[in-house]
Amino acid sequence: MTATVTLVTDRPAFVPVWRDVLERHAFAVRVHAPSDLGRFAVHGSAVVFDAASDSLDDDDLLTGVGYVRAAGGVAIVHAESDLEPIVLEAWSRAPSPTSSASSARSDGGSIWIAENASSS
Question: Across the 120 residues of the chain, what is the mean pLDDT of every consecutive 10-residue run?
């Protein structure tokens, strides 16, 4: 079974940046607008939030991350960076798609934040 990663964004240019890296590592990719939050399944899955989305303010971002964590998923907040090491690190620590809800939370529900290393 292929693991699926959901991208939450309203910026078309955001999708290929993540899709290329994820597909290179055999992940399936779904894309949802921030307004769809709460309308798609996240139980035990990985969700990448585009912090630069125009329709995703700080409150929406916190709500989305909380929603994913409460469902036993891995939340990633993207604020620009080289994605390859982030993808490898985040999913090496994520629960397997076949794990139970209790074991899916055994890592404490990590939140991964991708930040631009060149910004200060």
Answer: 88 91 91 86 83 86 87 84 58 50 34 42
